[in-house]
Prior knowledge:
Largest sheet: 9 strands, mixed
Number of helices: 0
Helix content: under 10%
Distance between the termini: 93 Å
Mean pLDDT: 96
Low-confidence stretches: none
Number of strands: 13
Strand content: 35-45%
Amino acid sequence: GATYTLPNSGTGTLYAQWQINTVTLAYDPQGGSGEPSDQTGDAASDVTVSSTVPTRDSYTFTGWDTVADGSGTDYSGGDTYTLPNSGTDTLYAQWTPIVALTYDPQGGSGEPGDQTGDAASDVTVSTTEPTRDGYTFLGWDTAADGSGTDYSGGATYTLPNSGTGTLYAQW
């Protein structure tokens, strides 16, 4: 819309002026908190993925992914990420549930502390034995009445996929 005066002779040239896009890398904690701040930079430039680790109750942070369900490309803190040509890209926090094994002394005392781990991972049953006046400790069982699976100290126990597994003292 501006007026341009042609030269008296020859050719006049106008040159395009360009400014590179400023784009963003955002972090979605997917239910967690303490995610890194957004990072901005020039289009198609490289940035370093933040090493800030978000937290989420009962979950372990396993890294970032370009797709919310984890089916995209994985990134860890310190990795190089190439920003998009325009707009915003998002990295999504990936989580593994932390599950627990608890010990119910069923009237005894001195039971082992809870053990935590990743879903479906193996833990070693504690060798700590509770005590109960007038009773002999026989071991642990997955059912309070002893009708489940028996475990002794040092045995391998597979944690559940979610929640808490409990071993009950047998007297």
